[in-house]
Design brief:
7-stranded parallel β-sheet, alpha/beta, binds (2R)-2,3-dihydroxypropanoic acid, 5-stranded parallel β-sheet, 2 domains, Rossmann fold, about 300 residues, about 15% strand
Length: about 300
Amino acid sequence: MKVLATRRYPGSAFDELADVEIRALGELESALPDVKALIVANEPVPVELLPGLELVANFSVGYDRLGIGELRRRGVAVTNTPAVLSAATADLTLALILGVRRRIVEGDARVRRGEWTGSWADSFLAEELTGSTLGIVGLGGIGQAVARRARGFDLNVLYTQRTQVETDLGEFRELDELLAESDIVTIHVPLTPETRGLIDARRLALLRAGTSLVNTARGEIVDEAALGAELVSGRLRAGLDVYAHEPHVPEEWLSLPNVVLTPHLGTSTRQTREAMTRLVVDNVLAFERGEPLLTPVV
Ligand code: DGY
């Protein structure tokens, strides 16, 4: 079965694909009718150039950029990589929470600029995690992994979900209540038509002054202009790994001390990226053998 992959994905599992061509989608000039399976990292699929396409194996849990509607209309099967990336993404979420609350990046910059005077007793005060309230928006695999880690930091955990679930990981709140009660809010919902702009200007205004907003999900879930205004005014703090127009980051954020910015690193550990490749390849091989897909997108 002819497979097209948009890059060489990390890990030895990739070598198990017998007939694979590596090409960036932007390099496709004419149709490739013999390609049956495509491996992409949440990139728009040019269906008109791949008329024989039967499977898209997505190297990402999020599939918001694939053009899923058209793929479904054409009967193309789609898989993604849930679960294997939850720990790495939750770890980065905690790193951003700590970075923002303990002002780690600000401190690092101060040292590098040679501005550390040695005085410590009365300067650079930050916010403790112990006893703070963490609001988790979306208690799926990643949200749950964050909640488990939060226990170790003695955070009080609130969560919101479309439907309330039976869990001891935190207390359920409606979204607006959660925003108003939390010291830290972290987002773990997928980008869908319902979640695009979910955290808009009205909801940002519900956050108390000094609240930290952390986003390792998708930039488009937050109204970036409204968030920018809150950050520039200094009312909110943020730890952000994702942006509405990646790799563009709003210029005015670059000099703000109250924001920690990372370049979409949620899943970027060697172990997780290799596990993602393993799952992608296993889905392709299962499809080739006519077996059930391991992680079909429903
Ligand atoms: C995902 O899996 O959706 C991540 O954002 C990609 O790293």
